[in-house]
Amino acid sequence: MNVELTPAFVLHQRPFRETSVLLDVFSKQFGRLSLIAKGVRKSKRNKNGLLQLYQPLLISWMGRGELQTLTSVEVDKPRYMLKAESALCGLYINELIVKLLPAHIVEPSVFEAYEHILERLQQADDIEVALRLFEKCLLTHLGYGLVLDRDAETGDIIEHDQRYQYQADSGLYRCHSESNKQSISGRSLQHLLMERDFDKQSLSEVKQLMRSVIHFYLGGKPLQSRQLFASMKQYSK
Q1: Which of 3, 23, 30, 31 has the highest local Cβ count within 10 Å?
Q2: How much is the pTM?
Q3: Considering the chain, what is the average pLDDT of its residues?
Q4: Does domain 84-236 have CATH number 1.20.1440.120?
Q5: 2-75 CATH pick, 3.90.76.10, 1.10.3470.10, 3.30.420.40, 2.40.50.140
């Protein structure tokens, strides 16, 4: 396969042999894939300087199989400049895509959502809301869409003043115990469903819900970015 100058982002890179790097790439037209950038570490003046996180690129590659070879790279648009908490959140969404999105699955809507959240992270604009909506979008396009409006057991419409527990493989169930720490109010579910009117309480409950669901689809594997975020918070105290 020979691909010429298609929009993409580098999600992660790591050294490979003496002079090359392995890239996890998210392409608008070809989905997520792995590329090898040969020889980019042997000179200061090379394309490795362009292979930065959050940099919109136009890339070309060739080859067969799971690992193909990067042949050219150009800047498409200005880089999204993420700082402090936004930079950590950027690492988190990159890791979500790498670990949840199967290779070679074309998802232009997720690509557009990725660009949108990078813009919001750059502006530090309602970061918590932006993260929750991106998580929801990603799960939906992976086929794991959340059913947020009905009780899975009875089929009843959710009620604002009731509390529910979400099971990733089946849906919402009404809680009959006030002590259930994993529960979420119908009010908070409505905010997530409509994607608006979030407040401190609903954002906290929605965050817990999304964390539980994502943990399920990751098969219980930890996210390094989340561990880094926790360590940074502990260090800053």
Answers
A1: 23
A2: 0.90
A3: 91
A4: yes
A5: 2.40.50.140
